[in-house]
Each structure stands twice: as C-alpha cells, then as structure tokens.
Design brief:
1 helix, 60% strand
C-alpha cells in the first residue's frame, strides 16, 4: 500500500488546479482515528497536523497538498485548528 504524500505548492498552483472550488472541512485541536475508503487529496489552508499510520508519523500544515491512499487506517493528531479543501478519488501525483 502506498503511503501519505506531502507536497509544498504555491497559492497560484492551488488556484490553477481548482483547489479553492473543492469542498471544505475543519476541526479544532483533537486526536481521532480515521480510515480512508477511497483516496483523498487535501490542501491545508491553516493548521498543523500529525498523522500516524503503519508506525510512521507524517507532519503537514498550511500551504501543503497531502495525498491519503485508499485503504489507509491512521490516527489524526490536530496540533493547531485545521481548515482544508479536499477531494476524494483523485490519483496520486
């Protein structure tokens, strides 16, 4: 199974990809289990998160594009309140 992929992208790149038209989601500081039935691509507008899966912890935050593969079971640890745009089912870049 592939792992979480994090990329830095500029606001202009996000605009060119149409990311600001995607659905939005947010939450406060918290820790919770999450499973991905299908892949998700997310762009963080604000916040800081650590996601642990298969013994590996990945950190990401505002301005980063993150890919979560289908079938991933993980634990989200939101360190700073998060607001993100997201879309399901996109292929990994």
């Amino acid at each position: 199974m592939s792992s979480i992929v994090v990329k830095d992208i500029t606001r202009q790149e996000a605009e060119e990809r149409g990311i600001f038209k995607w659905s939005t989601w947010g939450c406060g500081v918290s820790t919770f289990d999450w499973s991905y039935d299908e892949s998700e691509t997310a762009y963080l507008l604000e916040g800081e998160v650590e996601v642990t899966a298969n013994g590996e912890t990945v950190r990401f935050g505002a301005g980063q594009l993150v890919y979560f593969p289908a079938g991933l079971d993980c634990v989200w640890s939101v360190k700073k309140p998060v607001r993100k745009h997201y879309k399901f089912g996109l292929p990994q870049e």
